[in-house]
Amino acid sequence: MGDLGLGQEFHTWHQFSSFFDDWCEKHKVLFIIASLKPLISLRQNPLHYQPSLAATLRFRFVRLICKHSGTYVGQSTVQRNRLSEKIDCPASITLRLGLVVIEASLEHNHKLSEVEFAHYFKRHQLEASMGLPIRITNSVSKRFLAPDLIWNLEDYSKAKDKGMCELLSQLDGLFKSDPGAKVKLVFQEDVAVLNSIFLATSHMRGLVQRFPRCLYMDKAACVNSEFELYSVLCQDSNGRGRECAYCVARRGVPDLVIFIVASLVQSAPDIKLKVKCLTVGAGITDVDAVEEVLPCARVQICRLQVLEALYCKARELAVPKEDKVRNLLHNMANASSPRVYSQYLSDLEDLAPLPFLQYYLEHWHHNKGTWAECWAFERNRDCPFLEHMSFHQQKLRSALSPPLGLAACVRGLLELQALRVEMAALNEERVSELYRAVCPPDSAALIAEELGLAKHANYHVKEVPEGFLLDGGICSFLVSRDLATCSCSIYVSSRRPCRHLFATRLWTGQPLYDPGLLHSPSGSEGQDT
Ligand SMILES: [Zn+2]
Ligand SMILES: [Zn+2]
């Protein structure tokens, strides 16, 4: 193979990587990065390079090996799932300072396959490379991160990739304040390019463990031109949608849904058999394998979103008699029995033009069981999917203003996990009314006042062995584990639920209205004070 040889020189990393992309495409060869050393390393004295040189050359040593090489330079033989892929192919290319080719072994010990090439090759992978060794990124991708792994990655990323460093230090901070957080960084196999971040704090994991029955998942926001945010919500005792997992993922990453669901179950294994229904947005299609991870769960697609998608398509195809078509679609979605559905379907077959009918049959008919009323998980009940998602998106908008870097995105998501944010959306009037119905007016008025104050509560909530510690900076209060008593003077003197009880209940998802709180406790707590 010609046109790449010893002594060949490149002036920028960009120039080399686009040349190499072309060259690989021409010869149908697949190379992966075995080793990259940055031009500037913090471990060594900063050399006399100009900063602009560091930005354009980026690396002082680059070694690329054939995808079928069995070993990475300087490392032991890497064991792979598909061992047959690694057949110790000797092809490799090495570049040294100034991006000069100093070694090029271009003979392979296998046939070059166009099919394989077409399947694996992606341009710009080399250019995007961050310099993390694939031996680390490949193994990191398969498990939850531990703090020491973060330091390890941080060490490698220093001075090479500012965005990655910021992200890692954000995650380092998370582990310091919340050692129980579960985070995965997934890199493209054999390429140190970040594909997705899975994130669940201890609090989020606690929520899904308490309320695993119905989960809701959708693409919730665009982070930047490359990444999107997926959120998983559960529903707490107050009927509120609560965040229980986030995944920031590169657009078009395959098998994302199953990755998110499997990671969620790994982060809270108790829920595996407790999840009965997962409702997803109409844009989420690859749900087939979900039932393997959640064997007791039904997967549903939000019916209103399906209808919205169908209406859009009808408009786009300029379907004649659009109103009638919309009516039929609405009736099919809300059909009370499979027979009724079939009747409306045959009406649609008579009425709708072929292109629309084809679209319908290909996209929505075969999975009608996931969105039409008569096959619904719980029939004749309003699905709260849209309400929860739009509430969630409203919160996101207050914290994230895209386009965002990944570190800023993670920071924003973590900042949303605060009592202050949850309390701000409290509809205290609705709860007050329930108490008014069962209390003497003066008690009810005092409870309403506490609820109003709870709305502005700004505490850091920490779970401790005795219950929940609400730290407000100047003073802190202890709410008992059963969320029935508080250490504050209002509760102690009156035995009425106080703002701290309400705040803790809202935070943990327990009911704000609980007649049990009104009974004067007969226990010994009364004498303690
Ligand atoms: Zn080869
Ligand atoms: Zn209190």
Automatic annotation (TrEMBL):
PROSITE patterns, per database record: ZF_SWIM
UniProt keywords, alphabetically: Metal-binding, Zinc, Zinc-finger
Domain of life: Eukaryota
Molecular function per GO: zinc ion binding
Residue ranges of every copy of the SWIM-type domain listed in the record: 477-509
InterPro entries for this protein: DUF5575_C (IPR049218), DUF5575_N (IPR049217), Znf_SWIM (IPR007527), ZSWIM9 (IPR040854), ZSWIM9_RNaseH-like (IPR048315)
Pfam families in alphabetical order: DUF5575, DUF5575_C, DUF5575_N
Tagged with keyword Transmembrane helix: no
PANTHER family named in the record: BTB DOMAIN-CONTAINING PROTEIN, SWIM-TYPE DOMAIN-CONTAINING PROTEIN
Name used for this protein in its record: Zinc finger SWIM-type containing 9
